[in-house]
Write a structure and sequence with these properties.
globular, alpha/beta
Length: 64
């Protein structure tokens, strides 16, 4: 296991790529989701130390 397990949630894939790459280089295990329903699914399958999420997404936003 790395420094921690992080879930990145954003509807813009380029944002996920940049943030995920940066975190991975720092030794973190990174998972991602591109929408709220997928984030809930991924979050239910693993224990995450931190979830970084976009607040303004179409459909289910980060507050929901």
């Amino acid at each position: 296991m790395g420094n921690g397990n992080i879930l990145v949630v954003d509807d813009i894939k380029k944002n996920i790529q940049v943030l995920g790459s940066t975190l991975f280089k720092q030794g973190y295990d990174v998972s991602y989701a591109t929408d709220g329903p997928k984030a809930l699914e991924v979050a239910s399958e693993s224990d995450f130390d931190l979830i970084l999420l976009d607040i303004m997404m179409p459909g289910m936003d980060g507050f929901e």
